[in-house]
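Each lists chain and fold; for instance:
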Amino acid sequence: MRQRFASLNEKYGGILKGSLLFALVFHLLGFSLLPGYEPVPIEITVLAPVDTLFWIPPSPGVPPDEPAPPEIPERGIPEVSEDTIVPIIVPPMPVPPKVVLPKIEEVILKSIGEVEILPKPLHIVKPEYPKFARMAGMEGVVVLKLILDVDGSVLDTEVIQSPHDALSRAAVVAAKSSRYTPAIWNGRPVRVWIAQTYRFDLRG
């Protein structure tokens, strides 16, 4: 094929010159055979002969008339190393419905002299004498202020009088385990505060 291109390269100049000469003779004959015809000047550009024709060989292993097939990426499971961070999509937590608490009527706290029906003791727990207080010879009277709830349970305590903190703690534990009937005011149970006395006697 290279020899064919070389022979065409050698004959190109002669073919071009012959074509120009033929065109010139053809116009001169036309001028002589057609009277009254005024020739129009024509600019003729003579191209320089091509010295060399370049031949680009096809890519090896691929036919020259067929394009190379596109590369198809391989699909598979990507390798995950220990350093790879895999995002975890966590669905949003549902918003719990708003709980509307019912309106609670205010509980009235009364003194023992204001109620119509006084609370009565149902189960009075005797306080346990602390061992180290008995060994140390501690004795005396502990007076507590108790706030009774509407169901008769002891809601809160306050020490009014006590000879020692150890005896006070023993009295508070016993008071919170005691039970009373509810105090009644205006026909309904109410909270009330009372005074409760606990005696610690070494001879008892």
In short: The two ends are 134 Å apart (CA to CA).
